[in-house]
Write a structure and sequence with these properties.
The chain folds into 2 domains: about 1-175, Rossmann fold; about 175-365, Up-down Bundle (Dehydroquinate synthase-like, alpha domain), CATH 1.20.1090. About 50% of the residues are buried. It is α/β, with parallel strands linked by helices. The radius of gyration is 20 Å and the shape is globular. It has a 7-stranded mixed sheet with strand order 1-2-9-6-5-3-4. A two-stranded antiparallel ribbon has the order 7-8. β10 (about 335-340) and β11 form a beta hairpin. It starts with a strand and ends with a helix. It has helices at about 25-30, 45-60, 80-90, 105-120, 135-140, 175-195, 195-205, 215-235, 250-260, 270-285, 290-305, 315-325, 355-365, and strands spanning about 1-5, 15-20, 40-45, 65-70, 100-105, 125-130, 145-150, 150-160, 165, 335-340, 345-350. Belongs to the sugar phosphate cyclases superfamily. Dehydroquinate synthase family.
Length: about 375
């Protein structure tokens, strides 16, 4: 089963190709894009060990000249100094404006490669080849690229749309269980903000915390529906001037928790899950949605093996303070995405600090 989802952005439009075995078709997919012959593949050690040779062989067989750079794995390495390694390799291999950077990895590799491509020679081609569930359904789509600053996540970045997103669900067989669960957080997010049917399909599943418990058909459906949700939103609002902000559901508090734990204690999806629980409870307190919907969301998050409580020792006042540095702050007001019903959310900058503090207190271990 294969699917092609179009992200409609006028001259910047591109496809998301989802199919088992896509990794071995990477070169032929690139050939249809009329790219220059030079390509730089960016990955991390574990992913490169599993899939680097296959990807390079496919690209070379299609007539491209491929070089590679392997970066350290982990959110703590998503920095300007790490991106410098990509620039060094681009210079060494004389990448030109017609050349292409290829991100083979999870969201960290995708974000850094996209940022390097956006800024090298003022912008060159980039292809996203995500290897984690989170990157497949979220980070690889929409053109958001960037790196972290010590004071906040993704504060340095640029919008730079890929030429193509290539998804091969079969690569998820080597994904650690914790990372699979982290990706499910973003899938649940799409169910809450956009796709009620996706949410209900997840509720019907016996288990969501391991890829071994999902049929290939259900896994592909989850990926395709999630990608379609993101493509729908991005096509309507490329640079987050309005609607696209709903994709940040769970991220406002989630990013704060990540930052305060030094990006070491939680993976991104776990932080988003905590943020979704908080947003749901804030919405209950503000009478935007009911306890029943909130309970359904929490049960789904728990079914996916994701946390619903704050990490131990995290001070609530510190979380509230760090929210002020979030990119979504406007005129000093923290902007929250809050659910109204399954499949529908609203954007609010009128959440009282006391309400945030009260909710976080109930989530404290």
């Amino acid at each position: 089963m294969s699917s092609v989802i179009r992200v409609n952005l006028g001259p910047m439009s591109y496809d998301i190709s989802v199919a088992a075995g896509n990794l071995d078709r990477l070169g032929s997919l690139m050939s249809s894009l009329k790219l220059g012959k030079k390509a730089l593949l960016v990955s991390n050690p574990e992913i490169f060990a599993h899939y680097g040779e296959r990807a390079i062989a496919s690209i070379e067989n299609a007539g491209f000249q491929v070089s590679s750079v392997v970066l350290p794995a982990g959110e703590q390495y998503k920095t300007l100094s790490t991106v410098q390694s990509i620039y060094n390799s681009a210079l060494e291999h004389r990448l030109e404006r017609s050349s292409t950077m290829i991100a083979l990895g999870g969201g960290v590799i995708g974000d850094m490669t996209g940022f390097a491509a956006a800024t090298w020679l003022r912008g060159i081609n980039v292809l996203q080849v995500p290897t984690s569930l989170l990157a497949m359904v979220d980070a690889s789509i929409g053109g958001k690229t960037g790196v972290n600053h010590p004071q906040g996540k993704n504060l340095i970045g640029a919008f730079h749309q890929p030429r193509l997103v290539v998804i091969d669900p079969e690569v998820l067989t080597t994904l650690p269980v914790r990372e699979f669960r982290a990706g499910m957080a973003e899938v649940i997010k799409y169910g809450v903000i956009w796709d009620k049917q996706l949410f209900e399909r997840l509720e019907e599943a016996d288990n969501l915390d391991s890829i071994d418990d999902l049929s290939g058909e259900l896994l592909t459906e989850i990926i395709v529906r999630s990608c379609q949700s993101k493509a729908d939103v991005v096509s309507k609002d490329e640079k987050e001037s309005g609607l696209r902000a709903i994709l940040n559901y769970g991220h406002t508090i989630g990013h704060g928790v990540e930052s305060l734990t030094g990006y070491l204690e939680l993976v991104h999806g776990e932080a988003v899950a905590i943020g979704m629980v908080a947003a749901g409870q804030i919405a209950v307190k503000m009478q935007l949605w009911g306890n029943d919907s909130d309970r359904r969301q929490e049960l789904l998050i728990k079914k996916a093996g994701l946390p619903i409580h704050l990490p131990q020792g995290l001070k609530i006042d510190k979380i509230i303070d760090i929210l002020q540095t979030d990119k979504k702050v406007k005129d000093g007001q923290v902007r929250f995405i809050l659910p109204r019903e399954i499949g529908t959310v609203t954007i609010s900058d009128r959440v009282p600090s006391q309400t945030i503090a009260d909710v976080l207190a109930t989530m404290d271990n």
